[in-house]
Amino acid sequence: MKLALAQINPTVGDFSGNTRKIIDFAKEAAGRGAELVLFPELAVCGYPPADFLEKDAFLLQAQRSVLEIATATKEISAAVLCGSVTPSPQAEGKRVHNTAVLMAHGRILMEQHKMLLPFYDVFDEQRYFEPAAGQQIFSLDGQPLAITICEDAWNDKEFWRSRRYQMDPIASLMQGAPDAAPLLVNISASPYWQGKRQLRAEMLSALAQRYRTTVALVNQVGGNDSLIFDGSSMVIGPDGQVIAQARSFAEDLMIVDTAASIPVPVDVAPAEEEIAATYDALVLGTRDYVRKCGFSKALVALSGGIDSALVAAIAVDALGKDNVMGIGMPSQYSSQGSVDDSRSLAEHLGIHYEVMPIRDIFERAMTALQPLFAGSPSGLAEENLQSRIRGVLMMALSNKFSSLVLTTGNKSEMSTGYCTLYGDMVGALAVIGDVFKTRVYQLSHYVNREREVIPTATLTKPPSAELRPDQKDTDSLPPYEVLDPILEAYVERYGSAEQIAFSQQLDIELVSSVLKLVERSEYKRQQAAPVLKVTRKSFGTGRRFPIAVKVQV
Fold this sequence. Notes:
Elements: E1 2-7, H1 15-31, E2 36-38, H2 56-72, E3 79-87, E4 96-104, E5 107-113, E6 138-140, E7 143-149, H3 169-175, E8 183-188, H4 196-211, E9 215-219, E10 221-224, E11 227-230, E12 234-236, E13 242-245, E14 252-257, H5 274-292, E15 298-301, H6 306-319, E16 324-328, H7 336-349, E17 352-355, H8 359-373, H9 380-401, E18 404-407, H10 411-416, E19 429-430, H11 437-447, H12 456-460, H13 480-492, H14 497-504, H15 508-520, H16 522-525
Parallel strand pairs: 1-2, 2-3, 7-8, 8-9, 15-16, 15-18, 16-17, 18-19
Antiparallel strand pairs: 1-14, 3-4, 4-5, 6-7, 9-12, 10-11, 12-13
Helix pairs in contact: 1-2, 5-6, 5-11, 6-7, 6-11, 8-9, 13-14, 13-15, 14-15
């Protein structure tokens, strides 16, 4: 069969735009000889739709869009398989299904509902969807199809050491298949995290070899809020070799003749290339977040430090240099070197840069606070006041120029609470909130791979918030090369203090002190901007803890 994998970037709720894109891609694919065009999971309404699924008007629009696409297939020589939400006919249970709809010749040929509904990490599909009651092989022009949706393919007992579900939809389908092995089709909205593309390819290869059949997976691409979808759609032959693979982090239309194709080199990044993939993911997530929210411009507070420099570089690659403005807000504690580094960065990026010193504002604020602060030593309140003045100024510029503020805090800071509520945490999107500080340096060197974009001085000077004289991050935190492995083990893998201290050969008191910082800072994280997810476990919907607790670490 000549397949087309239409790797598109839908927007949640944009029924007219998504429908138009599906029809246009289907027409192009048919014009290139495709017999079946595959589109991602919930492509009609966008993924994840969340509580929009509780709205009758949303569901009605989805139904109308599916009918519009089906009608359009009268003029399209290829069949279309795309994901949408469809009503459940059952009187009990959830009211809707997550469905793969097969259409051709102006009508709906069949609907296959999703069977495995993920309810871990960022997924909460059991909240909304009724699982499929059963599955069936469908013959399209003599070609048997085993149609599955995303998670349905992620429960092979031969591949996974432990499984989340007792049922294996693919095993059930294949047991009931005819003598001729059906083409195994999976339409997905599979979010990216570091290492995910390699894992996905290995899993699909195992399925292809296990059932001696061709496997075709089409994956959504694009950013929707915190989630970034990498695309990387692929077709794998019965021998487990990749026949074709679409691009990562970009829309693509890939035509594959499953009867005539030969293996191609696998374009899945090995570990040493995952930095490039992470950077591409952050660029895509930033671009889609800004544009899908109806904006085109962004503001970045440039401190002269490496975090704000990386965020500015990502913003320029996402939105273009003319749509990014850098703002320097030095205080009496800011070094001349930091001011110069910010200006050099802006020049290297080609962005507009303005300087607004905050010393006078800070002094006037301190004068107003003096009657209440009298008799108490200078400390954290005074330091955070500087950050909060900057936050107020950034939001004023945001309102005036209709530009989104991109926060510059990294995952190490968010983990330990080394950030200021209503200060440096102010903004619409935490671009690097899922990037530990040590990886910030790796990504920054990647930015400089061809020329100096981030000044060398920014890369080499000791990190500092510059909120008091001669301040260094190490005054409050362990060195990042020690801190980050502790945080990764605790935040992403939920290791205990004892386990972390033993495995990393660290003092238990040091580890416990870091974990206490993490626990004490939950209230800050729950007030933070959305974080672009690029690791297995990011802050936000995928990591849920109460604030008012008393726990031992």
